[in-house]
Every structure is written in C-alpha cells, then in structure tokens.
Amino acid sequence: MINDKTFGSFIAEKRIEKDITLRGFAKLLDLSPVYISNIENGRKPAPTHEVLERIALVLILTKEEQELMYDLAAKSKNAPTVSNDLQEYIMNNDIVRVALRTAKDLDITDEKWQDFIEKLELFTKEQREIGGEEVSGGEELQ
C-alpha cells in the first residue's frame, strides 16, 4: 500500500538505494537537477508518463515498485487522476468501468476487494494448472 510515502520521497529513496547522485540521475533522465530536486522535495508533482517510464528503467524498479510509483505519481497531481498504468485498461474495458462504479456506489470495503483479488488470483492459478485454456468472458468466478 501507499502509506505515508510521497512520489518524491519514493524516487529519492530508490535513487539513493542505487547510489545515484541527484545530478547523475537528472543527467540519465535528460532533466534538470533543480527539477528533480523539486520533485523529490514535493514542490512539483510527478512528471509525464514517458518520464515515469524512464525513471523505472534507470532505477531498475520491480513490477511492484513500478505500480507503487504510478500510484504515488497519480496522488501527487493537483487534480484526482488514475495511475498511468491503469488508464488505458480502464478506458478500453466497459465492464471494468461498470465494476468500479458499482463498487463505488455500494461502498465496497477493503476486505471485499481483497476477497475479490484472491478469487481472481485463484482463478488465474487454476487456469494455468489446466493448461491455460481460455474461459469465456461470461463465466463467473465461484
């Protein structure tokens, strides 16, 4: 989860873990050191999606770290936004938007979301075990 971490503190922490100076990091990203400093100190929101992708490459972030970075980046924006890695998926899948709006309207709890995630993971695992056969989109998760 996100806890109290900010986008800037996350980037600074990962940069320092990799033993990269602020100036060196800025140079690798082809950005100004002042701009990077402003981001790390919370004076500027997260940069564009393209820059976020470069940051992930330079810092060699794991999938989980990238997801956290995208979530923190979205939270750093002045206006509410969805994490960059989810925007296209949500907008290209009508059923995802319906599911999210239904969950919002019903004020679904974290526990219910966790149950749903566990069912999805179990379903995926079972599909892999039976040879990865695709199941029609209409089939329910039990």
Question: Can you put this structure into words, describing what you see?
Answer:
By secondary structure, this protein is mainly alpha-helical. It folds into two domains: 7-85, lambda repressor-like DNA-binding domains (434 Repressor (Amino-terminal Domain)); 93-129. 64% of the residues lie in helices and 0% in strands. The chain contains eight helices and no strands. The longest helix is centred in the last third of the chain and has 20 residues, at 110-129. The radius of gyration is 19 Å and the shape is globular. The relative contact order is 0.09. The model has no long low-confidence stretch (mean pLDDT 86).
Going by CATH, the homologous superfamily of the largest domain would be: lambda repressor-like DNA-binding domains
The largest sheet, given as strand count, sense and whether it forms a barrel, is: none
Q: How many helices does DSSP assign? A: 8
Q: Which CATH class of the largest domain is shown? A: Mainly Alpha
Name the structural class: mainly alpha
Q: Give the tally of β-strands.
A: 0
Number of domains: 2
Strand content: under 5%
CATH architecture of the largest domain: Orthogonal Bundle
Mean pLDDT: 86
Alpha-carbon distance between the termini? 27 Å
State Rg: 19 Å
One letter per element, helices H and strands E, the order comes to HHHHHHHH
What do we call the CATH topology of the largest domain? Answer: 434 Repressor (Amino-terminal Domain)
Report low-confidence residues grouped into runs of 5 or more: none
User: Rough shape?
Assistant: globular
Q: Could you estimate the helical fraction of the residues in percent?
A: 55-70%
